[in-house]
Design brief:
This protein has four helices and no strands. By secondary structure, it is mainly α.
């Protein structure tokens, strides 16, 4: 027989595991964006004299700026999730500190 607590991913360790998984994925994304930014910096250091080479470096510069902004957003997301961690129920409760179910607080959350 399956109990409600067993099916509720937000009860007990399930919630902490889900939040931990999300934190891990956000950290992995941040690392990958930093790697791509390093590649962009390498490209920007190349000294292509042709107009096409200069245009390419400028395009990479625009993309690098967008990636840097994405990295900031990832840091904000990690901070938001870390603020959420104390609200994760530690017992069989299926509500957050604010009284809402996780799906209501975070639409589309699995």
């Amino acid at each position: 027989m399956v109990t409600d607590a067993a099916m509720d991913p937000w009860s007990g360790d399930g919630a902490q595991e889900a939040v931990g998984h999300l934190m891990s994925r956000l950290a992995g994304c941040s690392v990958r964006v930093e790697q791509v930014l390093a590649g962009c910096r390498d490209i920007q250091l190349l000294e292509w004299q042709s107009p096409a080479g200069q245009a390419y470096r400028e395009a990479v510069s625009v993309q690098a700026a967008a990636l840097a902004q994405s990295l900031e957003r990832l840091a904000e997301a990690r901070a938001a999730v870390s603020r959420f961690v104390p609200e994760v129920p530690l017992s069989g409760s299926s509500t957050l500190a604010g009284g809402s179910l996780p799906g209501q607080a975070f639409p589309g959350w699995p």
